[in-house]
Amino acid sequence: MKTMAALWSVLLIVFFAAGPVQGVTPSQQLKQSMDDVIALVGEHHPIDSSKQLMRKNQIFKILENRFDFGEMARRMLGDHYLQLSDGERAEFDLVFSRLVEETLVQNLECSRGQQVQIVREKAVGDKYYYVSTEVAGAARVMTVDYFLRYERGQWLVCKIDVDGVPLMHVYRARFRRAIRENRFQALMGVFKARMDGHG
Description:
Layout: H1 2-16, H2 26-42, H3 49-66, H4 69-77, H5 86-108, E1 117-124, E2 128-136, E3 141-151, E4 154-162, E5 165-166, H6 169-180, H7 184-195
Antiparallel strand pairs: 1-2, 2-3, 3-4, 4-5
Helix pairs in contact: 2-3, 5-7
């Protein structure tokens, strides 16, 4: 019995290990990443454009290491993703990842100086994990639910809901309609202009 108990302990440690530090659960790793993002969001906005870009890149780097943007993009478009060429998929993945970053940061801006509080969490099968968090702002408490998938040796976010609504819900119909109507490149131009600060 002791041998079996020891074996289960080892398996649990392996299952919940996320990244190089053994014993770190998916929720702890996620919380650290989001606390780091909130800390950067809460900093005084630099006036210098180069410093603004540096801050933005720091935020994106944190999210890039914690989010599976490729999987999120595929979930966003569903079967329509398969209709894109390899080049269009790469282009969409990049634009989509930047939109996720901007949308998430906008939602977190009202919570400056606060930390992520884990409300509940649970494993979903052997490859998925659910973490519900709250971030208290000056006006309200925002609920952010994360769905993580075990991939490439670590737990990565593959879906986000903010106050019960998928984070990128506002863009879903527009992206899918553009692909159906063969207006993909025109739509990419609009979103690229927005990211460059011209839209």
